[in-house]
Specification:
The chain is mainly β. The protein has two domains: 1-211, Immunoglobulins (Immunoglobulin-like), CATH 2.60.40.10; 221-308, Sandwich (Immunoglobulin-like). It is 10% helix and 43% strand. It contains three helices and 20 strands. Strands 6, 9, 10, 12 and 13 form a five-stranded antiparallel beta sheet that branches. The protein is globular and about 65 Å long.
């Protein structure tokens, strides 16, 4: 199981579970895609299960502890520690499923933005997983792996200077007979193949395209660039959501510390505008500098940068 951390600009854990069964293939998730599952097992040199790779690296497994309580305490501490590390890049993902009257496809657009210079044997990888599936006689499976896009090798990411960005787009057919479209997620990460460290990750549920939007344009989750930018003392942030639901729009410092929540609750489908006055949760003015604002829904997370000049 990969446990991939989006540590900067708010904590997010992106679990990705590969089902491996030796020596017979009785696990339906293993049977579905054994080639790519075995490729990822070989990538990590795994020869036993269950085992975890935290942020791409081996740290500890459940078998290293005497009780579940000890393992759970270790997991909490590990997540808190790793999520405090600012990420050198950010990843923005826009994804949706084709409408029912089209061929079954997943559309994914990915932007990788360097916040500082990064180098190494870097690869962009994207996996399709399902949040959970119940199987008769086998129980409930959480975050089972389905497919790697474009492959387990991933896309080459060159060395980047601060401010550089890369854009990737994929259209991938999926098996509607085996996928549960209301539980599908994409997990995207950039990984250094030397040492297996993960630079950052993004994950979220994949919404289905709306067939009710005029012109066939997909109604989707969008986070706009704040205006004005740079700003003093206030700025406006626009965002759109594809359905009624819970939304959180938060401001973070460059180290990932929460500054304030601009929205935290239920909002309706469509476009919305909010204003930030440059103050934290206690009402105190914050100093000049770079800040990040992040939109979280039940399907995706999007992050952008803004600059406050006092």
């Amino acid at each position: 199981m990969d446990v991939i951390f989006d540590g900067a600009y708010g904590t997010q854990v992106a679990p990705l579970k590969y089902h491996v069964h030796w020596p017979s293939a009785t696990d339906q998730f293993y049977v579905y895609n054994p080639t790519e599952i075995n490729a990822r097992r070989s990538y990590y040199a795994v020869n036993y299960v269950p085992t975890f790779r935290w942020d791409g690296k081996y740290i500890k497994d459940p078998s290293d502890f005497g009780t579940y309580a000890q393992w759970y305490s270790f997991v909490r501490t590990t997540i808190d520690t790793l999520s405090d590390n600012p990420a050198p890049i950010r990843i923005e993902v826009e994804h949706y499923l084709s409408p029912p009257d089209d061929p079954d496809s997943i559309y994914i657009k990915i932007d990788v933005i360097a916040e500082e210079a990064v180098s190494g044997t870097l690869r962009l990888r994207c996996a399709i997983v399902q949040y959970w599936v119940r199987v008769v006689g086998q129980g409930k499976f959480y975050y089972p792996f389905r497919d790697m896009i474009p492959s387990t090798a991933g896309e080459v990411v060159p060395n980047l200077s601060a401010g550089d960005s890369l854009h990737f787009e994929y259209v991938v057919p999926y098996d509607s007979a085996n996928y549960h479209i209301d539980r599908m997620q994409s997990t995207v990460w950039v990984q250094n193949d030397v040492g297996k460290a993960v630079l950052n990750a993004a994950t979220g549920f994949i919404p289905q395209i709306s067939t009710d939007v005029p012109g066939g344009v997909p109604l989707r989750v969008v986070l706009d660039q704040n205006m004005p930018n740079p700003f003093n003392p206030t700025t406006t942030i626009g965002f759109s959501v594809d359905q009624d639901g819970q939304v959180r729009l938060s401001v973070f410092s460059p180290t990932g510390r929460l500054v304030t929540d601009l929205v935290d609750g239920a909002v309706g489908e469509g476009s919305h505008m909010v204003t930030w006055d440059g103050r934290d949760r206690t009402g105190r003015e914050v100093g000049s500098g770079v800040y990040y604002y992040r939109l979280d829904t039940d399907k995706t997370s999007l992050t952008k940068k803004m600059i406050l000049v006092r």
